[in-house]
Amino acid sequence: MRGNRVTLLSLAVATVLSANETTTLDNINIVEKSNSEVVKNISDEELKSADLAEALMKNSPSISIVRRNGIANDIILRGQKKDNINILIDNAKIHGACPNRMDPPTSHVVTNNIKNVKVIEGPFDVENFGTLSGLVQVETKDPKESFHGEVNLNAGSFGYKKASATIEGGDDKVKALISASTEESKAYKDGNGDNFLEQQIKRGVPFATQYKKDDIDAFEKKSVLTKLQFNVTDDQDLKLSYTANRNDGILYPAGPMDADYDDSDIYTLGYTIRDLGSLSKQLDLDYYYSKVDHPMSGKLRNGGTMPTYMTNHLKTSIWGTTVKNSLEVGDSLVTVGLDTSVRNWRGSMYSTNINTGTITASNTNRMYSTDTTNKAIFTKVEKSIGNLDLEAGLRHDNTDIDTQRSNVDNKKYSSLNGYIFSAYNFDEQSKVFAGIGKSSRVPDARELYQETTASNSDLEDTKNYEADLGFEKTIGNFYVKPKVFYSVLKDYIYNSGKFENIDAKIYGFDLSGHYYFTDNFAFDYGFAYQRGKKDGNYRDKDLAEIPPLKANLALSYEYEKYKFKVEVVAVDRWSKFDESAKEQEIAGYAITNLKYTQELFKYFELTLGVDNVFDKVYNSTNTYQDIRYVEVGGDQILFNDPGRYGYVNLKYSF
What we know:
The protein is mainly beta and 654 residues long.
């Protein structure tokens, strides 16, 4: 069977190569150019905190935030999150260890280290394992030649303090960078002025689950990024990087536990060789390894009558390697590659006696050590025929999931995925693009094997069949880009109290663009809307975690040494929700943010900002039972987002 699948890959390549139009070959990257959104210069623009999820929510209408704290938040992309979207940091995968999503991949990188984030919507990726409905590629800062550096000091509401520094330098042969940061904050207050404990009391959270103290630290976060890059020859590059994150005492007030600490490490190595001959225009060899250590406990809560608290200590790691070769075949650029990765996830529960320190093991909620091993071959073809750009890809995966839990079966999955994407350029100001694709993702260890009533060892892998259509148009100073999509999900993994496979559909549109009033004055806009429906006979046919209509609007003015920006994030009432999955209706809201940046002297820059200027009380996040929230009267509690937040940042650059 495997031989047949590989033959299909070769036949697909040959089919696309059969056209005889000639062209000058370069990477066309039609999917990235047409169906992606790039959030640029995050390290300079998103100064409020280290939280990447919040930065993306402010900049992309298709991305919504899953609020858990002032830091370490998660994202929803076009109605999908968790393993349904792929998040890479410098092409490395990192998975959170917490089954309750306290430490999503977005929490293992800080905004002051990020250059750009590229968001590719849909199943149009064959180079990475498990891109079901979207790909988020985080690119951290690269070292520059000569000697440069910057220092940032930041202070904000709720006792927030941050310091960061970056030093970089080198020549045309060797370049290096080191960046370090530390930040901490008290618990935020909502628009009513209530902190975490006060919100818990107002919402009737049981006394045992409430915090012991009112004035409590919400998090402390430290991070280091190091990079070393060698220009071995004119045609060869070697890149090394290491990222360390050390987080302590992260509070999750809507849940029953908090993170004692959350430590992660990411190692990457990349080697590129160009122009090896007629069979290789560029050869890339990449390796990564990441690991996360995450104990969460109830030691900051009041607890019950017994002088004990529970700890769930989880760890995860993944290593992966990719070999990718690009070559010119006729008038097409062909990429072929091998990709493999191994993820381990394990954890255990234990109780601690507060008086004696005695630890007693427990099998409750145990995460038995489970390995997910993926091996894949992929190919991609890029071609231009006059004004028409074409890109097609295929990927064949074999995945084995092996667990140490007894009395359940190990799993094997095999899939063939692919896409075709095209764009027609009417002229330099207008183009239309469309794509169809099929992708899949396998269930994870929590969904299959964790010792809970929700796990299900009989789960099939989820398949996504999707079509996307859009166009771009520039008329003078006005730019507009509307897109629509329709996604058919087969064996969609869904938490209905127990993980199960269902069939469903998600469809929607987004509209983005800008208008330049002058060279200094600009208006940016974006709107996104999705609907999700279950197929079949269900009491509630709405899918969970499908955000309502969202708008991102911004006016910015820049002149000589200063910049001013006002932005509005508006979200409609969450009226389509899955009550059977413990979601609930949420009121709509609109928040206004202001930011002013002034160059003081040659090397100094001052930024002043206020988020949620009008101190609105609102909820951004629904209560889908895939995350365990505290329940009151059988309902999972809603927790308010932060109220008015002011901050100041002083940057010194050299």
